[in-house]
Amino acid sequence: MKVIGFLVNPIAGMGGRVGLKGTDGVVDRAIELGAEPIARAKAEEMLGHFKELVEENAVRWLTCAGTMGEDPLKSSGYDNIEILYEPEPATSGEDTKAAVRAFIEKGAELIVFCGGDGTARDICSVTGSETPILGIPSGVKMYSGVFGVTPVKTAEILRDHVEDRLTMTEVEILDLDEDKYRDGEWSVRLYATARTPFESTLIQHAKVMIEEAAEDVIREEIAEYIVEEVNENPGTLFLLGPGSTVEFVGKEMKIDKTLLGIDAVRGGELVGSDVNESDILRLLNDANECKLIVSPIGAQGFVLGRGNLQLSPEVIRRIGRRNIMVIASPAKLKRTPVLRFDTGDAELDSELAGRGYFSVVIGYRLSRLVEVAK
Predict the structure, then answer these.
(1) Exposure string over 8-21, b if 16+ CB within 10 A, otherwise e
(2) Strand 340-341 to strand 302-304: parallel, antiparallel, or no bridges (unpaired)?
(3) Pairing mode, strands 133-137 and 2-8
(4) How far, in Å, CA of 374 to CA of 371, rounded?
(5) List of residues 6+ apart from 228 with CB closer than 8 A
(6) H or E segment at 277?
(7) Distances from the Cα of 21 to the Cαs of 9, 58, 150, 308, 317, in angstroms?
(8) Taking the C-alpha atoms of 66, 70, 72 and 78 in order, what is their torsion angle to the nearest 10 degrees?
(9) Helices (DSSP H) in 128-276: which residue ranges?
(10) 52: buried, middle or exposed (CB in 10 Å: 19+, 13-18, 0-12)?
(11) Which residues make beta-bridge pairs with 112?
(12) Residue 213: what pLDDT?
């Protein structure tokens, strides 16, 4: 029987849809803006799938009371659990660290957690490179290499670990400075390394930052094409996603495009800056047609679900798959073998995957079909 520590960061990912780009230090503000918890649902999705794959007596779960672990385990039908830590009502990073210490003292051979890069940092500050960790993706920021690409894929990694099919590998723990992020600065730091059960098709790669000189030329060509589309469709609402590739589009339009936010343009004019989910839905109410311009995140290949949670399933459904324009340079696609969608709605992700390929704009009126992971 495997002894596994399990914890959930209940606030992970709450700041995404309301445009706060994280929840570090702004939980109350996120709640004021209408943010709702999403981590428990992600944890239950993983646990539910894992229960279908592995007999329950294969694992003894060490966990925390309430929403930090006990609740999702019990609601998923698990009985073989031991509660080792009682968190404060408003959980914090200190609760995470204390819980992990308790798990290790009790003999946990793997820590499974649901959260983002901040949670990974807190856990790794205790485990170091001794006790391996595995993340269920739920945060706004997930650049570290310990996360499964989806909750379902994380369950498959955990199954393979329990059945002793995987070896451990060392990966990077990265985190983005949220204060700088909210101010439009992308500052990702390497904080530590950790060990994780590794399966290359199921674990996401740490973010690759592409800053080659030749990239600028290609980005300008892509931007020129998008600007033509905007000018030829003055009544269409264009939503411009985060990232440096899309930022080039904003520069070509001569608008003040936020690097890390989502901005709205109609007729070449900025009609919404750094918009959240509610803002987008209001803009869509007044739009006859909308097109979304997004670019995949580095080597991870995520088009939706990482760094753009404002684009909720409701927003995406109203826009429609045919109105999503994915843009990327050929060099970036070389490091992005497949595209991924993780909207939080499995049915929608399947619809977006279509027949397994998505058209990506790679230059001026040039496109390429890129495989979508299913």
Answers:
(1) bbbbbbbbbbbbbb
(2) parallel
(3) unpaired
(4) 9
(5) none
(6) helix 277-285
(7) 16, 38, 20, 8, 22
(8) -160
(9) 151-162, 178-182, 213-232, 244-253
(10) exposed
(11) 6, 134
(12) 43
Q: How far apart are CA 38 and CA 173, in angstroms?
A: 22
Structure tokens at 80: 């073989």
**Structural tokens at position 242:** 């985060």
Q: Which amino acid is at 230?
A: V
Yes or no: is domain 2-197 CATH 3.40.50?
yes
Domains in the chain: boundaries: 2-197, 213-371
Q: 9: which 2 tokens?
A: 């960061």
- Token pair listed for 319: 């826009």
Prediction pTM value:
0.64
- Cβ-based burial of 92 (10 A; exposed 0-12, middle 13-18, buried ≥19): middle
Q: Mean pLDDT by 10-residue block, N- to C-terminus, for the chain (374 residues)?
A: 95 57 52 66 95 92 96 96 90 92 97 93 93 89 81 94 91 69 59 81 54 67 92 95 88 89 93 94 95 83 85 95 93 82 90 91 89 85
